[in-house]
Specification:
The protein is of the alpha/beta class and 332 residues long. The protein is built from eleven helices and ten strands.
Amino acid sequence: MTPYLHQLYPALADTLPHLALNAAPTPVRRLTSLDTTGSELWVKDDSVFGDGGWGGNKVRKLEWLLPDARRLGRRTIVTVGGLGTNWGLATALYGREQGLKTVLALVDQPVDEHVRRQLERLRASGAQLHFTHTKLRTVLAAPYLLARGFSGRTPPYLLPAGGSSPVGALGYVEAALELAAQVRAGELPEPSHIVTAVGSGGTVAGLSLGLRLAGLATRAVGVVVNDTLRLDEPTLNRLATRTANLLRARGANIPETVTRTANLDIVTDWLGPGYGQPTPEARTAQTLSADLEHLTLEPVYTAKAMAALLDLDAHHRLTPGPVVYLNTNGPR
C-alpha cells in the first residue's frame, strides 16, 4: 500500500523512501470494559505492527529509517537502548533482513523477567552488543562504537535511543494519517485525545505533527516513562518541528500555519521511582487490561501509560472524548 504521506505529498515518493514492514493498518476497537466513567475509550493496537515476527511502534520508525540508511549507502546502524530494549531488538532483526548490521550500546535498567527475555532475544539477534552500563559511559564510548560501525571507509548510520530522529518520527506522522483514514471510514469517531507512552519522544512528536497534517483536532498526550532523557514539551515540539522541516526539504508543500505546535500535552506523574521501575498503578492497569480486554501490556512503557489514561479519564481530564490509547508494545 502506498504510504499515506506519499498520498498526501506525492513529491515525497521520489525523495523520501519507504519500506513496507506491515501489510495493513493496525486495528482499532472500543475498550468497553474499561469505560468506567462513561467516556468512550478505544485502542489502536500497534503491538501487531510488523511482518518480521516482532511488532510494536519501533517497526513503524524502521519503515523510514532503514531505507534512509540504504539511500546513504550505510551498512551498519549504531544505536543505544536499555538492557530490555524493544528498539534495539527490532533494529537488529529488521536491519538484518535488509543486509544491515547493528551495533548496540546497552545501558543498565532494573532486571526482571521481561528484561531477561529481551536480553536472550538480543543475544540471538545477531547484533553486536556493548554493555556500557550508564549514560556517561555510553557517551565516552561513542568514538569506539562508531569506529566499530565502520564498514571499510563507509561510516555507520547513527541513531538516538528509540530511533527518535526526524526521519524516525515519520513513522508516527504516518500512523496519525492512518488513524485519520480510519476515522473517515467510520471505524471510530474522531478522538479528542490519543494517549501513549513517551520513552524517547519520536512516537508522540510524530503523532503531534501527523494529527495536524491530517486536519484532526485530536490532542496527543504523552506519558513520560523515562527519566534518562529530556522529554518535556519544548524538546518534543522541537522534534516535531524538525520533522516538519525535513518534509518541506524533501518536497512537501506544508503551510507554516499547519505545523505550529499546539496539540501536545506531556504528563510526568506516572514514572514512579525511575525508568524500568515497576509501580502498583501500572501493575493494576496491566492486570485490568489483560483480564477485561485481552490487551497485553508490559511494565516499562505501556502499563504506565494505561495507568495514566485510566486516572486522567476518571478525573475527567480527557473530556470531551472519545479517547484512544495507542498500544506500542513490542513483543508478540
